[in-house]
Amino acid sequence: MSSSVARKHNKSQSAYAFDNTTTSIAASQMRNHLNKLADTISQDDAAKDKFEGQMDSFFALFRRYLTDKAAGTAVDWDKIKSPNPEEVIRYNSLSESSPDNSKLLSKLAVLKLNGGLGTSMGCIGPKSVIEVRDGNTFLDLAVRQIEHLNRNYDSDVPLLLMNSFNTDSDTQHIVKKYSGHRIQIKTFNQSKFPRVFKDSLLPVPKNVDDPLSAWYPPGHGDLFESLTSSGKLDELLAEGKEILFVSNGDNLGATVDMKILNHMIETGAEYIMELADKTRADVKGGTLINYDGQVRLLEVAQVPKEHVEEFKSIKKFKNFNTNNLWINLKAIKRLVEQNKIEVEIIPNAKTINYDGQSDVPVLQLETAVGAAIRFFDNAHGVVVPRSRFLPVKTCSDLLLVKSDLFYLEHGALVLDPNRYDGNPLIKLGKSFKKVSEFNSRIPHMPKILELDHLTITGNVYLGKGVTLKGTVIIVCNDGDRIDIPNGSILENVVITGNLKILEH
């Protein structure tokens, strides 16, 4: 690292008090560095125009971040009210879908957020290609679901994948296998923004070809601008599509729901957010509120510290955002063209290895697509069944969706009707963090139809045909090993130490 860069990088954050003067200086320095970055492009004019367009978008985000910090904008807790009855409605109050489902589906496109990698579960490449059920990946299941709709209703619902620069190349290769299927797959990339040194507020990359660690995809709030700039929005509108159903690629419960689609068309709503009843496992999830007479999404990061526990309370904030969203395409076009979508900025602190130094603190400025709800007309939430929220973030979630608790039906997971209650609580320790470790320790899924709670930590292996009921806790001490033999039935037990269970 050059001495000048090192001095800038090591400058204390306190040098930026975020008043009007320092904000102006920081913005000017950023603009100059972004211009220099653009000058390092040796490709054709089209590539340079695209890059400069992304840097303009990033600069607008960065300048807004500085302005917000200088203004000290924060949520006024006294202005937060529960949503009005028309702002959050229950799923069971929706009318049944139109008998002409083919007509409804002709207006629909489905988008999966596909920018994430499977690194948190020890995998390389897009998370959407992790095998989750019966040899099927997240992407396989999404394709099967939509293909079934298209065949059953003689429709042409397209599947869009919003990739990031981390996932695009692998995804382009993978989607080729669906070329013979009855489904149209469209892909586009979200933006590629420069990370910023936390101390100096200068961009990390000095050249457009700098390593990927210098860049980041700016969260799914980038959907609106990227959908527009890619040309996919105009393409969908030209095909007569009106509504976009958006969901996280790892939410196996996010299937096309005809009642919600019909409700959106009947009411003329431009934006519908699916909510689910909050449990203690969802205390950090964003929730809809009424703020200054307007429906808004409140995230835990926006909550003043003294009110965080109140925010987590199940009594006051009863629902959370599943990130299953139904959005009107014409409304997206109108708002983007008018530059009206300015959602709250989420500063995400990270550390990277940079120029021979490790753990260099950086910021990446992100936005969330759910926060845009307040800009759309007649926007509201629908409290849906919990079955529509089935994310796979960890191997604990993977055990749940692979188990006998569910069966596959046209690519969708369906809860076994013999299950008497909601999903069991499953907690697997760090020995099960990676998918490869999970598969070696639990090569055969246990039967968990009557399970309430499972905790496994340490060096534990499950045999074939294991049944778990009630509350089962297995804790293996460091340096020891526990093997649960084939055919074991464990019900309301705590197992510790260094054991091989021989009979039950």
Automatic annotation (TrEMBL):
Keywords: Nucleotidyltransferase, Transferase. One of its GO terms (molecular function) is UTP:glucose-1-phosphate uridylyltransferase activity. InterPro entries: Intein_N (IPR006141), Nucleotide-diphossugar_trans (IPR029044), UDPGP_fam (IPR002618), UDPGP_trans (IPR016267). One of its GO terms (biological process) is trehalose biosynthetic process. PROSITE patterns: INTEIN_N_TER. UTP binds at residues 127, 190, 219, 250, 393. It catalyses: alpha-D-glucose 1-phosphate + UTP + H(+) = UDP-alpha-D-glucose + diphosphate. The keyword Transferase applies. Its EC number is 2.7.7.9. Transmembrane segments: none annotated. Substrate binds at residue 220. Gene3D superfamilies: Hexapeptide repeat proteins, Spore Coat Polysaccharide Biosynthesis Protein SpsA, Chain A. Plays a central role as a glucosyl donor in cellular metabolic pathways. PANTHER family: PTHR43511. Belongs to the UDPGP type 1 family. This is UTP--glucose-1-phosphate uridylyltransferase.
